[in-house]
C-alpha cells in the first residue's frame, strides 16, 4: 500500500452541481464552484443545501467584530509587553507569543469575510490554503505556548530557586514551539500528507478529516495526538502540580503558625503579594481553560469525521467550533487586561483615558521578609520577585 496514495480522493464534476434544482428550490453547496476547484471540496459537504444568504452575512459580520476586538486586544498586549521594560521577563515572552498566535489567527479572517459576503468558495483553492495554513500555525502554536506558560508557572512555584527561566532559555523554548508547529502546517499545505480543504459553508478551511481513506485517518490521528493530546496533557499535569504545591505550602504555613502560637505567618504585605500572585495565576489558568474549552469541540469534530458517523457533521454544526476558536483569540488579551496587575499599570500609564485604576504594590519589603522559622519564606520571596518583574 502506498501510504501517500491520493488516487481514492473523490473528484465530483461541476456539471453535476449546476442545475441540480429548479429556480424555485434551494441549490446545493458547491453549485457555483468551478470544476477544477471541486476536487478540493470533500464530497460530504456537496450533499447539503446551500445556507440562506442571511446566515453567510451574519457570520461575516460576526467575524468582522471578532477581528476588530482581537487585533486591538492582542496588538495592545504585544506592544505593551514588548516595549515596557518592567514586563520584559522570560515568563512574559510566552504571553507575547500567545498574543502573536492569536493575532495571526485573526489576520486570516478577511478571507472568510470575503467568502461569506460572496456566499461561497470565492477566494478559491489558494485562499483556502492560506487560510488553513495560518490557522494551523497559530492554533498549534497557541496550544504549545499554553503548555509552556503552564510549565513556567510550575517552575516558578515548585522550584523557586533553581527553576526560574533565563531570557535565553525562554527564547530557545520559543523557537522550539514554532519548529514544533511548522510540520503540521507545511505538510498538508504541500499535500505531502493530508491536505487543506473547505468545511461547513465552504467559507472556511481546515485540514481534511472527511475523506474516507487510511491516509486521512492516520493524519487525523497523528495531528490530534501531537497538536491536542500532548499539549493538553502537559497543561493538566503542570497545573495539577501547581495546585498540589500550593496546598502543601499552605498546610506547612498553618502547621508552623500553630507551633508558634500565632494566627498567621503572613504580614499584610505578604497577603497583598499573595493576592497579586493569585490574580496572575488565575489569568494563566483562565487562558488555558478557554483554549481547552474552545479547541476540544474542534478536536472531537475531526475525530468524528475521520473515525465516526459523518452524518452528525452538518455544515451549521461545524461552523460552531470554528467560531469558538476565533472567540477565544478575542478574549485572551482582555483576560490579561483584567487580571495582570503590571500590564494594567502600564496601560494606565500609557492610556490614562481608559480610566484603569490599578495601584502599584511595593514589593521591596516583601522580598526581604524571610524568617528562619517560616517554611514558606523562600516561596513568598520568590513570588514577590516574580510579581515585581
From TrEMBL:
Protein location: Membrane
Naturally occurring in which organism (per UniProt): Polypedilum vanderplanki
TM ranges: 55-81, 93-114, 120-149, 170-190, 218-239, 283-307, 319-338
Membrane topology recorded in Swiss-Prot or TrEMBL: Multi-pass membrane protein
Main subcellular location of this protein, as a coarse class: membrane
GO biological processes: phototransduction; visual perception
Entry GO CC: membrane
Key words of the record: Chromophore, Disulfide bond, G-protein coupled receptor, Glycoprotein, Membrane, Photoreceptor protein, Receptor, Retinal protein, Sensory transduction, Transducer, Transmembrane, Transmembrane helix, Vision
One Pfam family in the UniProt entry: 7tm_1
Biological function: Visual pigments are the light-absorbing molecules that mediate vision. They consist of an apoprotein, opsin, covalently linked to cis-retinal.
Family per similarity comment: Belongs to the G-protein coupled receptor 1 family. Opsin subfamily.
Family matches, as Gene3D superfamilies: Rhodopsin 7-helix transmembrane proteins (1.20.1070.10)
Ranges where the G-protein coupled receptors family 1 profile domain occurs: 73-336
Classification of source organism: Eukaryota, Metazoa, Ecdysozoa, Arthropoda, Hexapoda
Keyword Lipid biosynthesis: no
The protein's name: G-protein coupled receptors family 1 profile domain-containing protein
GO molecular function: G protein-coupled photoreceptor activity
PROSITE patterns assigned to the protein according to its UniProt record, in alphabetical order: G_PROTEIN_RECEP_F1_1, G_PROTEIN_RECEP_F1_2
Keyword presence, Transit peptide: no
